[in-house]
Amino acid sequence: MHWAKVVGSAVGAAAILALGIILGHFAIPKAADPPDPQDLDQEILKTVLAQLDASKIRENLRELSKEPHLASSPRDEALVEFILQRWKDQLSGLDSAVTSTYEVLLSFPNQEQPNLVELVDSNETVLHSFQPSEENVTGEQAGPNVVQPYAAYAPPGTPKGLLVYANQGTEEDFKELQARGITLQGTIALTRYGGAGRGAKAENAAKHGVVGVLVYTDPADINDGKSLPSETFPNSWGLPPSGVERGSYYKYFGDPLTPYLPAHPASFRLDPNNTSGFPPIPAQPIGFQDAKELLCNLSGPSAPDSWQGALGCDYKLGPGFSTNGGLPAGSMVKLSVHNRLVLRNSSNVLGIIRGAVEPDRYVIYGNHRDSWIHGAVDPSSGTAVLLEITRVLGTLLKKGTWRPRRSIIFASWGAEEFGLIGSTEFTEEFFSKLQERAVAYLNVDISVFANATLRAQGTPPVQSVIFSAAKEIGAPGPSGLSIYDNWIRYSNRSSPVYGLIPSMGTLGAGSDYAPFIHFLGISSMDLAYTYDKSKTSARIYPTYHTAFDTFEYVEKFVDPGFSSHQAVARTAGSVLLRLSDSFFLPLNVSDYSETLRSFLQAAQDHLGAQLQQHNINLGPLVTAVEKFEKAAAALIQHITTLQSSSPDSLQVRTVNDQLMLLERAFLNPRAFPEEQYYSHVLWAPRTSSVATFPGLANACSRAEGTSPGSEAWAEVQRQLSVVVMALEGAAATLRPVADL
Amino acid sequence: MHWAKVVGSAVGAAAILALGIILGHFAIPKAADPPDPQDLDQEILKTVLAQLDASKIRENLRELSKEPHLASSPRDEALVEFILQRWKDQLSGLDSAVTSTYEVLLSFPNQEQPNLVELVDSNETVLHSFQPSEENVTGEQAGPNVVQPYAAYAPPGTPKGLLVYANQGTEEDFKELQARGITLQGTIALTRYGGAGRGAKAENAAKHGVVGVLVYTDPADINDGKSLPSETFPNSWGLPPSGVERGSYYKYFGDPLTPYLPAHPASFRLDPNNTSGFPPIPAQPIGFQDAKELLCNLSGPSAPDSWQGALGCDYKLGPGFSTNGGLPAGSMVKLSVHNRLVLRNSSNVLGIIRGAVEPDRYVIYGNHRDSWIHGAVDPSSGTAVLLEITRVLGTLLKKGTWRPRRSIIFASWGAEEFGLIGSTEFTEEFFSKLQERAVAYLNVDISVFANATLRAQGTPPVQSVIFSAAKEIGAPGPSGLSIYDNWIRYSNRSSPVYGLIPSMGTLGAGSDYAPFIHFLGISSMDLAYTYDKSKTSARIYPTYHTAFDTFEYVEKFVDPGFSSHQAVARTAGSVLLRLSDSFFLPLNVSDYSETLRSFLQAAQDHLGAQLQQHNINLGPLVTAVEKFEKAAAALIQHITTLQSSSPDSLQVRTVNDQLMLLERAFLNPRAFPEEQYYSHVLWAPRTSSVATFPGLANACSRAEGTSPGSEAWAEVQRQLSVVVMALEGAAATLRPVADL
Lengths: 740, 740
Description:
2 copies of one chain form a homodimer. Chain A has helices at about 5-25, 40-50, 55-65, 75-85, 170-180, 200-205, 220, 290-295, 375-400, 420-430, 430-435, 465-470, 485-490, 515-520, 550-560, 565-580, 590-615, 620-645, 650-665, 695-705, 710-735; strands at about 95-110, 115-120, 125-130, 150, 160, 165, 190, 210-215, 245-250, 285, 330-335, 340-355, 360-370, 405-415, 440-445, 455-460, 490-495, 500, 525-530. By secondary structure, chain A is an alpha/beta fold. Chain A folds into 3 domains: about 40-100 and about 365-580, Zn peptidases (Aminopeptidase, 3-Layer(aba) Sandwich); about 110-340, Glucose Oxidase, domain 1, CATH 3.50.30; about 590-735, Transferrin receptor-like, dimerisation domain (Transcription Elongation Factor S-II, Chain A, Up-down Bundle). At the A-B interface, α1, β1, β13, α11 and α19 of A face α1, β13, α11, α19 and α21 of B. Chains A, B: GO terms for molecular function: aminopeptidase activity; calcium ion binding; carboxypeptidase activity; metallopeptidase activity; protein homodimerization activity; zinc ion binding.
């Protein structure tokens, strides 16, 4: 071959080789390249929402509610196995599922010696006996597993005394009776549900010498005044006259004997006799049928207008019965309460889907399993939704179609009705790793109260993800509106940032989110479908905690067709996927700025002058709120900038950790030493009417009227510093991470 | 061109193109590829160690110690500026540096009315006055800024009484005096340093009716018995006869008025009159020259042998002076203490190097800046090392040669001598972000006590990184040994895992690491060079907290040539780089297994029988330790596996978070409610002699002798559950992250 030709060929070959090298280098993605960051997949999201099936939710509910499943009962244990098997299913289960069992202190009536409410004369001769249980109106109220109405954790005892009517049993109610000269010492107080917590009624009563408490549900508060059998279940969704709300009368939450410790068999337990938080005197709930007989025969002056109800008579205050009524004047009411405290095993069921990219970040979704009776609404409507969501996600998982970016933990909690026990023990057992790794907690307890609209409660950062989900799902019914647009019609507020938006509620301690938000500082939320408040003033769905909360009740009156159940399942499913799959966590921390600003404004408006008088200056609080606002806005801006670039995984993880851990920065275990578990300085219980930082508001209430320089005013100053420190710490968490 | 030839050429070209594509694709790294994970660079490490310069440390020390720099004094403030300017230097500074100032409660003697120790008769006529300050032996002891010897936070007062000798002022010492029938009521107690904390001497004394306390340093405890001027500084490293150890007599740490809150000007403050932790009675430290005069003239029975010292006389117990001695019999000792509590500004200086890859992970390295007088050893020997390390790293940084993987925070703490105040306020202010992000805290306070060997204290996970560093650095002196091999000759133990290894100490509350480990649960360590304990029994270097701790003292007697300073700088520098730059964090969490196993063994051996008698079973503790061991071993195995693959950044971050957060899992803010700041269930103060879990050991000590079923025995059970819960939580943190 000619040399020049060889050179020419070689040059040509070199050029081609070079072209190849260039093509190879730039045009073909490397197999070893990191895959595109796994982000929320809209197609998967659509698939999931489409597959969530109302009829399957209905089937779940029928199974879950077919028998009473009181915490630790054999049926409750059977449902543990039922859920475990679902989550271990080969075709639609999760990666793993386990049960976790605690030995906890529960309280039950004595089957051999039922609780009684009677009328007796001074020789203790029984003149009359009231109903010990609900009427069997659908054939389901008489089974051996229908627990008699009782006030869980109320102490046993047989107090008797003249009856007084004490309205809702608040501190103010008893003061009012005292002010009106009604003798309280040695009486039995009849109170109605609402206004004060269950246990608080007995606590307040005992302070005034009352020896026993009856609690009933007034038709005015639950049935929009209706009280006839023909107007109530099974003829409507109303509470029947014999219906009785059961409930826990324990003041705190978690296993009463093992505060701050998981209730393992070997754990240290308090002496039940020295445990605080139980009602100090016997208490017993009754139906409004019995309450009517008692209340409409009372003597004494008329109760104030706001104390009147819908029992069809003028409510009097007592003490004792009138001489011209249907009950013997001079007779006393006698309570025989035989409740027993028992150590019982109660289980959580936990199911896990392992995250593909960030397995050490947990999105937690839970509901309790235990009910008082059949619990079709409470909690099985939520569990039916939970099981449908795990079925759909589990099926995608088992098919290999999908695995979330982060891990998802599903939980079926035990013994919630006794005081959020299963969930609280879980947070105690896994305190460290949950604090380190939990992104958010989603609770769906009662999924459907009624058919009108979504109702969401949560801390500010979850508002955005709930809104995003609600905007893309159709509301049940013919409106054609999204869940979001329907919601805004029923419940809205004007946000200084967003204008008119649906109104989110805040989180108290009404369900299993409480230990997550208050004890662990994990951003939490609770979702449900609920009433049109313009159409009913019921304080909750009427058969709540009664033997009438059955499958038939749901199917006939709460959600025929289960379309609201499906709407909640879709909303919860969408929120769950967004939290578990989004590259950037969909927690808008800057939404806390609005809350802080409104808390600050309320403090300035309602406490400012009073504080000024005691030389307590809100200046540092103003500065702290401003620092927070600035840091939050800058972080959101930083995220926007990152989103438009190609951030690496660690950059996004850094930001996501800031978003996740913000809520933790509001925790201070030393803020409220007297409040068991409550460490979140923004959401601890607020007894003051001023809608501001609870520690500050409560301390001001307590200090009011004490002398300048008192310990109570020092505590106001301390609470102010506690909240300033928390806000400064929260701002520091949000600032660029290499700034101090 | 012939068609076949064209085809042939095309085929050949295609082959070459293909080859090029293959080469381009596989052989050339993509620009867009993520860089190799940034790991510890051995070349950088070598460069840093080589550049750490003994003569520059010497220069730093001369500047830092040239004037007294008591906390909040003008010179202390000047050093704040000095350090700030170093860290802001254009050529050798850090990315940023700031000061952070707190308003804290300090205690000073009154310059107008010096504290006095006198002999008086019953008419208060002064018979004799003792030295109010140290002798001016080098010309540096008489300056206006040499603070008079005093007991910081001891209350003002002018108690007088007969003198008794109370040894070290422990609870046992006073009980011994009582048992021997020595009247204590109304006396002044002379005690020597050691045995009990400073403040504890006054607290114990007050419980027995003692009205004032003197504290001195016995030559037996500090000078190996030597006490003549010719045998002490400036003629040797010994403590001169007039030397007096100052110190804080406050019981806790942090600003006394703002526990758990950063001491910002607007923060809530306790009333100083209601603050706990100050000595209950006046106290004053004196030199052994004065102590000799007092002690060698005491009357009464001889003190026990173990109470005798090296003052050259038989120590008697008193009360009062003997009739045949050099001091008037019947005369009383009168203390005039005029200490004042003052709110003062005290600053930390904070310098930051931003991490290149994980800026949200912090390695913190600090030392305090404030001294009692010149503080050449304490703390300037440490600060001189700190500034040399920042110079070398800052220079590399400014040149663009190096940037660490993680962020490094350097700190010069204020007001440590008064009770770790600057560091504690820092941990309070940045509680949340430090808990979330701090990898480890490295403290180098006194860097060189003496020239013999490295001394390291820390929690188990830091042992491995200190050993790694110590193995690669030569020990000062002619031995040719590594620091590690030299260390093992002086202080070693037999580890069941590693065989013979250097012995690491544990962390008490002696320096600024205390809030990091006890309050925040951050893996911490303290490094220094120290004595050959076979050659001296000095409890600390002799001029500690006296006016004789000067540059001359260091240069002549502590570390001529500064090679031990350099050795500490190299060790600290290497530890710092390893922590900030290693891809996998060099924290060997499985080294905790050895500690837990030994704590468990001690509990079984020394408490087991006693616990059994009270039906307290150690079984759950055994199980928890086993779970921890298993989880730790599995995690180490997992890391080994990852190291041999090509783990992605998030996989490594996940593991590193487990390593970082393990120490946090041992925190329980509710474990020891009466112990301010102490939340780490393994390292809280242990008063019991059994080397086991402190809560368990202390509770057992307190319960001993109480009746079965007592509250004290219930507390033992609670403490057992607290430690079991912590170990179970720690094991859960180490287990695979998607397991529960």
